[in-house]
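Assess this one:
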Amino acid sequence: MLRALIIAPLLIIPVFIYLLVSLTAGEAGTQARLSSALFSMPMMSGGRFVFTMGDFVLLVGLIFLFIEILKAARTKSDAIVNHSVSMVLLLFCVIGFLAFPGFGTPVFFLLMVMTLLDVVAGPIVSIVAARRDFGIGQNVGE
């Protein structure tokens, strides 16, 4: 179970949450469902803080993006599989965004950008970590 969490990109979870929201709301209702308030509270300024379903999906995505970047610092062979599966997830997101009306929302676009950042940053962080592990390059310890 733990190995599956290491290999699978965690950004699949907010994408799956979005998929569930989109499928249960239908094509026309996705934006309305994402805009629905989960909770709201008054602020000292007199305004109101409203936290929507779309905000929740993005918050989950940001948390898992942070964890993915931390996972990328590992130099084991599992990291290569993780980067490959992240690329497949990005491909799924791009196809969904371009081909399906329920996925053409700003929330899903930002999830897709998070997935892109994972695909780009993951290998870069892994390479930097590997260079430090093997002591390649000048002034590695600095």
